[in-house]
Design goal:
The chain has about 180 residues and is an alpha+beta fold. The protein has a single domain, classed as GAF domain (Beta-Lactamase), CATH 3.30.450. The chain has 6 helices and 6 strands, in the order ααβββαβαββαα. Strands 3-2-1-6-5-4 form a 6-stranded antiparallel β-sheet, with helices on both faces. Strand 1 and strand 2 form a beta hairpin. The protein is globular, with a radius of gyration of 15 Å.
């Protein structure tokens, strides 16, 4: 029997309001939206990372609704780097080396079969300009000591484009109704 010593993400103080914002955004119905998939691909390429993912957090689950380089599906929130990003209260969250950070060192996505990620950067998705519903993240197996202003701008632009797309989908019923529902 092994004991996991990593810190699951804290639950934000405004979790109930945040969850209502997730539902209101319609983000969970955006699974495999072609625009969101293109944004994830662009983040991966522009950041030069092995994977990028658009994660929406609701209850105990991290829903990856669009991704490049990693499977878009539901994962356990307690292992989520994005959960830490939204709980931080910041718009940008960066961990140069996940293995060197006690919160993540024994996370299954860092050193076990689930993955071997060392670098993590995320821009938080804010619905209605306030509630953090998820994040667009860039991950890589190689740590990075520095993140450039260009990288930050790439992430911020991607987050803004994602929120704009979610608004577009919410306001256009035909777009919303033709997309797949989240897979579990």
């Amino acid at each position: 029997m092994s004991i996991s010593i990593f810190q699951p993400p804290p639950v934000p103080m405004n979790e109930r309001e945040r969850e209502r914002a997730v539902v209101a955004s319609g983000a969970l119905e955006a699974q495999d939206d072609p625009v969101l998939l293109a944004i994830a691909r662009d983040v991966c390429q522009q950041m030069g990372v092995s994977a990028s993912l658009l994660s929406i957090l609701l209850h105990d689950t991290q829903y990856v609704v669009a991704a490049h380089g990693i499977a878009a599906r539901a994962y356990r929130r307690k292992h989520s780097f994005s959960g830490h990003a939204i709980a931080s209260g910041e718009d940008f969250f960066f961990i140069p080396d996940l293995l060197s950070d006690a919160r993540f060192a024994d996370n299954p996505w860092v050193n076990r079969d689930a993955g071997r990620f060392r670098f993590y950067a995320a821009a938080v998705l804010r619905w209605d300009g306030n509630h953090a519903i998820g994040a667009i993240s860039a991950v890589d197996p190689n740590p990075r000591d520095v993140i450039t202003e260009r990288d930050r701008a790439t992430m911020a632009d991607a987050a803004a484009a994602i929120v704009a797309r979610l608004h577009e989908r919410r306001d256009a019923p035909l777009l919303r109704d033709t997309q797949a529902v989240p897979r579990h």
